[in-house]
C-alpha cells in the first residue's frame, strides 16, 4: 500500500491522506482548532498539525510509520526544511519513506479537480488570490509542464494569480499563466496597498471595503444581486486585453471608492456598496468569459475544469454554464486552498508513477463519530436526550420541520469544504415566512442581504428550480420556479442549490422524502451548523457546545434527539 500525506500550508490549512491514489480522509485545521480560517504554516503550529494528521491516520487505521511520502503546497514563499524537522512537525518518523515533495500551488489546485473528471480531456482554469512565487520555481521537485504555445505573462518578481492547463486525458500542460510583479516599484502596485493584479484580490479588496475583512467574498457576492447592472465596460476597473493580460486599476479604485464600511454595518440599504459589489461581480464574469473564449479558440474542447477560490463564485459559474462555451463543467466543493492538500498528494502519486484514480464528486471527507462518544460528551452539558429508532428519527425531525422548528442535523462523515452539505447542517422549512428572519436575528446572526441555500432531491429538482442536472456540492445558482420557497430565494429570484440522491447521502435523502410527505415539497433550507464567527462543527463536542450556546430548537446527532431542560 502506498500512503501519501498532503499538507496545505496556507491561510486555511488542511491535511489529506491518500492510500493507493484514493482520498481516504481530509480535514481543515479550523475544524480542529475551532478558529475560522486557521493557518497551518510549515514548521509552526506543531500540536495542531499533529492533531490534524492523527485525525486522518486514526480514521484510516494507519500509523506515522506507514507514511511513504509527504506533499507540501503553499501560496506563500517556499521554505524547505530537513526531514528531521519535518518529522518533528508531524510527530514521528516514517519507516519506508520515499521523500518530501514541494508542489506548486496552482498545480495542486489543478490536480485536485482533475481527480473528479474521469480522464475527460479539457481546459483546467485556476483562479485565486495568489499562489506560488515565480522566484520559487527551482524549489519545487514537482514541475509544471509547459505547452509549446503557452500564453505567458510571468514577471520574474511575479506571483501566480491565474493558471490554465490543457489536460489530454493523461497529462496536463500549462497553456496560460498570469503572474504579475509584486514589486512596489511597479506603477500598478503604487496605489494597490498590497493587493495584486488579481481577480481574487479584487474580491479581497471589495470584501475589506464592504465587510471590514478580506475573507468575506461570499457576502459581497450576495450583496451584488441587489445592485444595478453596468451598461458599459468602457470604464471597467478590471479588464483583460485581447491577448489575455489582466489589468486591475487601483488608482481609479482609490479615487472612486472612499466610503469603506469600517464599522461592519449591515449594507442591505447602502446603494454605494451594493452597486460596488455588483460591479465587481459583473467585471469578474466578463473577464473570465473573455479569457475562456480565448483559451477555447486555441484548445477546442467540450469540458472545463474549475478550481481556485474564485471557483466558489456560483454566480460566475452559472454565467459560464449559460454561455454554452462548454458542454460540461467539472466542479467540487473544496476548490479553495483546503483542496490543495488533496491535489498536492495526487501530484506526488503521479510523480511516483502510480495509477491515477478518479472519484465521483464528493466532499464528505471527514470522519464519523459513534453514539457513545456523544452520550459521553452530554455529561458535560445541561441538556436532555432520547435515543430514537431509525423510523422515529426521520418522523420526529420531519414533524418538527413541518411545525416550523429550526433543527441542527449532525450525521455521518463531516464535510471537508466551506459548505455544509447535510451532515453538519442547520435545517429548516424553506416555505415558512419567518425562517429567514429567525436565522438572521437569533441563530446565524447574518446580514439581511445574505441568502440561504436549499437542498432538494435530485430527481425532482427541475420541478422547483430552473435546472436539468445535478448540483451535489452547492455549486449551481439557478432561478427558483416555486413561489413557496420564500426562505431560500434571493432578491434576484435565484438560489444556490444542492441536489442529493440516495447514493450520495442516504440519510439526508430519506429525511427529504419524509419532509415532502408533510410539506408537499422535498426541499429544506440548508445552512452550516456553527455560531457566528466559528467554523462548521466537526465533533459531537463542537455540536453540543454550539447548540447549548445558541438558539436552535433541537439537535439531532445520529439517532439522538437533544433538547434543553
Give a short synopsis of this structure.
This protein is of the alpha/beta class. It is built from 15 helices and 22 strands.
Return the structural class.
alpha/beta
Largest sheet features: 9 strands, mixed
**Spatial strand order of the main sheet:** 14-22-21-15-16-20-17-19-18
Average pLDDT taken over every residue = 97
Strand content: 15-25%
Low-confidence stretches: none
E-strand count: 22
How would you describe this protein?
This protein has 565 residues and is an alpha/beta fold. The chain is built from 15 helices and 22 strands. The strands form 4 sheets. The protein has a 9-stranded mixed β-sheet with strand order 14-22-21-15-16-20-17-19-18, sandwiched between helices. A 6-stranded mixed β-sheet has the order 7-9-8-6-12-13, with helices on both faces. Helix 4 (105-114) crosses helix 10. The longest helix has 28 residues, at 271-298. The termini are far apart. The mean pLDDT is 97.
List the helices and strands and how they pair.
Layout: E1 3-8, E2 14-19, E3 22-28, H1 29-33, H2 46-60, E4 69-73, H3 83-90, E5 99-103, H4 105-114, E6 122-127, E7 146-154, E8 162-167, E9 172-179, H5 199-211, H6 217-224, E10 238-240, E11 246-248, H7 250-256, H8 271-298, E12 303-307, H9 314-322, E13 328-330, H10 340-351, H11 371-378, E14 383-387, H12 390-402, E15 407-410, E16 424-428, H13 435-443, E17 453-457, E18 476-479, E19 494-500, H14 506-519, E20 523-528, H15 540-549, E21 554-557, E22 560-564
Parallel strand pairs: 1-4, 4-5, 6-12, 7-9, 12-13, 15-21, 17-19
Antiparallel strand pairs: 1-2, 2-3, 6-8, 8-9, 10-11, 14-22, 15-16, 16-20, 17-20, 18-19, 21-22
Helix pairs in contact: 4-10, 5-6, 5-8, 6-8, 8-9, 12-14
